[in-house]
Every structure is written in structure tokens, then in C-alpha cells.
Design goal:
This protein is mainly α. It contains 4 helices and no strands. The model has no long low-confidence stretch (mean pLDDT 80).
């Protein structure tokens, strides 16, 4: 048996893509998601459903509220 490790075709493709492989997929996905949320919040603010504020502040606020809810429910025993 040889000492060569088996490498899947997918991992070879990942390595051969160059610079894209150096950015974790989580970060690419996160940035794409943030862009969608920015647009949503901008539309809500423009339509008067939400008070005007920096969109990054609105994204952070929503994330903090959701994280707090999940954290609190975990310790209350809810699932």
C-alpha cells in the first residue's frame, strides 16, 4: 500500500481555484447574506416601516436580538 493519501476530486478542485480557496466559504456566504439584509432594511426604511438608521446597525441589532432569544430559551429549557 502506498503512502499517498487519497484526495477527492472536490478537494482538488478547491485547491486549484486559487485565491477563492483562501477565503472560507462561511465568509463568502455571510457577506452575500449581509448584502441581502442590507437591501431589505433599506427598503423597509424607505417605505416607512422602520426608522432610518445605518443598515449595519440594523443588522447588528437583529443579530443581537436573535442571539439573545436563542441563548435565553436554551437556559429556560425550551427547544
Amino acid at each position: 500500500m502506498s503512502d499517498r493519501r487519497r484526495v477527492s476530486p472536490r478537494s482538488r478542485a478547491r485547491v486549484s481555484r486559487g485565491t477563492r480557496a483562501s477565503t472560507p466559504s462561511f465568509n463568502r456566504s455571510r457577506e452575500a447574506s449581509r448584502q441581502r439584509w442590507r437591501k431589505r432594511f433599506e427598503h423597509l426604511m424607505a417605505d416607512g416601516w422602520m426608522r432610518p438608521m445605518p443598515t449595519q446597525q440594523a443588522i447588528d441589532l437583529m443579530g443581537d436580538l436573535l442571539y439573545g432569544t436563542i441563548f435565553l430559551n436554551r437556559f429556560r429549557g425550551r427547544r
